Amino acid sequence: MHFQGRVSVFLCILGVAQLVSAGKSDDLLSRLVAADVEMCSKDTGVDVKEFEEARENRALNHSMLCFLKCAMEKIGFLKDGHLQIDQAKEAFPGKMTDSLEECFKGIGPISSCDDVQKAENCLPTS
User: Fold this and answer.
1) 29-122 maps to which CATH number?
2) Integer distance in angstroms from the first to the last C-alpha of the chain?
3) Residue 79 pairs with which residues in a beta bridge?
4) Which of 20, 34, 77, 86 could form a disulfide with 72 if both were Cys (CB 3.0 to 4.6 A apart)?
5) What is the residue range of the signal peptide feature (predicted)?
């Protein structure tokens, strides 16, 4: 169960989990590696549970944005400073709205941890 909890948290980290129904299995699960979650947590000093709570409140601090950037890079949603929108569309077929896709396309390069906030701002509020 501990691993499943980490997978659930990791989906939130990717910034696209809000596009998928809670508890619904998807193709992304086959790409996740628990070691990557651990590495991003260790590298940034971010506790995964604290991240999840802060993200629910839309209150990510700098370290948490670094954690999110690390996770997005590990899973392949962020490469060379650019969001890989096609990767997200493949992982979540039919879940990305046109307006969300347009917002992602308009944010420009993501080179710093704080730049990740631009992608977060595209996500719909709960």
Assistant:
1) 1.10.238.20
2) 26
3) 82
4) 77
5) 1-22
